[in-house]
Every structure is written in structure tokens, then in C-alpha cells.
Write a structure and sequence with these properties.
The protein is mainly alpha-helical. Helix content is 71%, strand content 1%. Bound molecules: geranylgeranyl diphosphate.
Length: 288
């Protein structure tokens, strides 16, 4: 059972591994642009979940470091591309000017491409080939067209008449798949059995939905300086979110409901899963 301030501990572990990541063979401009976004801070939720998922399934956190770094690389790439003029056209991320503002649009696209690809180089460093290939499959499916990229496509295409069901599916893909894959890869790295991985997937999926509802609430009630990104864009751009659809109270209810389902998915697991339980509760506290 983990007893220390494990979120802070795993976050620091993940940060250290990302800082030391070599980006072998990358031209200096490329390495600079990739590091700029990858090392810009952030909560490291996906990296932490990979490490915590591994420990919750009885493994050692360090065994999931390649999975944690790979999940954070995919996340950083998605933020760089999401901020581009062709997408959300944002100039502030994690309290710093966005990649395309600093490096220009072409280099920002390439920094995203580089991070996306490097995530899989990083996973290939997992010593056991069966574990490595299971992680590659898990992350590729979650990040690709069936997952995060597909969610972004849906978001950009929002059909007229899109409602709660459309929103749920779009967010499941866009935000939920990567969060779920982080937990799942952590458990794979621990050698977890099928039942444990099924519970981890379910937990991760509900946690992702709760996370998104919280993020939607904070877009309205949060502080731009604390959040380090432009807020209020959902309303300004007439986006469909849990808040625009159900109001602030309705979105908070959705976050609580999804958190309860995430916790329920872990029932039957022992105290090793307490970290995952505490992480779900902690995330909900961001709005309560
Ligand atoms: C461009 C392929 C492509 C995908 C973009 C994930 C995504 C899809 C876009 C990011 C924009 C966004 C607002 C997504 C919804 C919630 C989310 C992922 C917020 C950012 O994650 P945090 O809060 O960020 O974990 P930090 O900075 O803490 O890592």
C-alpha cells in the first residue's frame, strides 16, 4: 500500500524521467520545441495514472515509467496541435505562449508530430516485448482515429442538433481515451490479469468523463492565471459542453456521478488501489 503524498511523488518521478528523456537524433530546433511543450508543467495526470495504475495492480512504479512518459508525450502533442491557428488558435498554454507563437506554425506542427512518434519509441524501451507491444496497441488505439483524434474530428464537425449523447461520445474519445489508456498501460506493465485490467479500463473511462466535466466547469469558474490557459472559450465559441448543456450544477452532478462510477469500478480491489481512489476524489475537489 502506498502511504506518502503519492500524487506529488509520482508527479516528480514522471517529471524527472521526462527531463532526462534524450530525444536521440533530433535536430536542435526540434528537440528545443518538443522540450518546450513537454516540460512546460501541467498536472501530469496521465503520467501519474500510469505509475499509480501499475502500483495499484501490484507492480513497481518505475516499471511503468516508459508508459507514463509516452502518455505525457501524446498529451503534449495533442495540446500543441489543438492550440494551432487551424484548430483552437490559442496563444496561452500552461501559463506560457503556445508552441506556434514561439516557434512558428510549421515547427509547432513538427514538434507535435515528433512527440507523437517519440511516444512509441519510448514504449519500445519496455524490456518485455509482450508488455511493450500490448502498451503500443493500447496507446495507439487510444490516441488515434478511434480515440483522441476521432474525438477532435467530431468536435470540429459538431452536427446541428448534437445533444447529450453526441457530447458523451465526443468527450469519451477526445479526453477519456488517453486517461483510460494511461491507467491501462500502468496495469499492463504490472502484469495485471484480465479482470484487473477490465476494472482499470472502467475506472479510467469514468475518471476521464469526470475530468472533462470538471474541466468544463473550470472554463467558466476558474482563474486564468491559475489555470495557465485562456478560459471562457466554450461560451464564446458556442461549444457544446456539460456546462452549456446542463448548467454549472448539472455539470457538477455529472462529475460526481462519474467519480462514483470510477470508484465503483475499483470495488473488489484491495488497498493497493487506494491511490487511484484518492486521485478520483482529489480531482472532484477541484470544483467542490
Ligand atoms: C489535436 C489530435 C488532437 C487532439 C486534441 C486533447 C485534445 C484533443 C485537445 C486538448 C484541448 C482540450 C481543452 C481538451 C479537453 C480537456 C483537456 C485534455 C485539458 C487539458 O488537460 P490537463 O488539464 O492539462 O490535464 P495539463 O496542462 O495539466 O497537463
Amino acid at each position: 500500500m502506498t502511504t506518502v503524498d503519492d500524487y506529488g511523488f509520482y508527479k516528480a518521478m514522471c517529471e524527472k524521467a521526462l527531463e532526462a528523456y534524450p530525444f536521440e537524433g533530433a535536430p536542435e530546433t526540434s528537440s528545443k520545441a518538443m522540450r518546450y511543450s513537454l516540460l512546460a508543467g501541467g498536472k501530469r495526470l496521465r503520467g501519474v495514472l500510469a505509475l499509480g495504475g501499475c502500483v495499484s495492480a501490484g507492480g513497481r512504479a518505475e516499471d511503468a515509467l516508459p508508459a507514463a512518459c509516452a502518455a505525457e508525450m501524446i498529451h503534449a502533442y495533442s495540446l500543441i496541435h489543438d492550440d494551432l491557428p487551424a484548430m483552437d488558435n490559442d496563444t496561452l498554454r500552461r501559463g506560457k505562449p503556445t508552441s506556434h507563437v514561439v516557434f512558428g506554425e510549421a515547427q509547432a506542427i513538427l514538434a507535435g508530430d515528433g512527440l507523437l512518434t517519440e511516444a512509441f519509441v519510448c514504449l519500445s524501451s519496455i524490456p518485455d516485448p509482450v508488455t511493450a507491444s500490448a502498451c503500443v496497441r493500447c496507446l495507439a488505439e487510444a490516441a488515434g482515429s478511434a480515440g483522441m483524434v476521432g474525438g477532435q474530428v467530431m468536435d470540429m464537425e459538431k452536427p446541428s442538433g448534437a445533444g447529450a449523447e453526441w457530447l458523451r461520445e465526443m468527450e469519451r474519445r477526445k479526453t477519456g481515451c488517453l486517461i483510460r489508456a494511461a491507467v491501462e498501460m500502468g496495469m499492463i506493465c504490472a502484469g495485471a490479469d484480465g479482470d484487473m485490467i477490465r476494472r482499470g479500463r472502467e475506472y479510467g473511462a469514468h475518471l476521464g468523463a469526470a475530468f472533462q466535466a470538471v474541466d468544463d466547469i473550470l472554463d467558466v469558474t476558474g482563474d486564468e492565471k491559475n489555470m495557465g490557459k485562456s478560459l471562457g472559450k466554450d461560451r464564446d465559441e458556442n461549444k457544446l459542453t456539460a456546462v452549456t448543456l446542463f448548467g454549472l450544477d448539472g455539470a457538477a452532478d455529472a462529475a460526481r456521478r462519474e467519480t462514483a462510477l470510477a470508484l465503483e469500478a475499483l470495488s473488489g480491489l484491495g488497498p493497493e488501489a487506494d491511490f487511484l481512489r484518492r486521485t478520483a476524489e482529489m480531482m472532484l475537489k477541484r470544483v467542490n
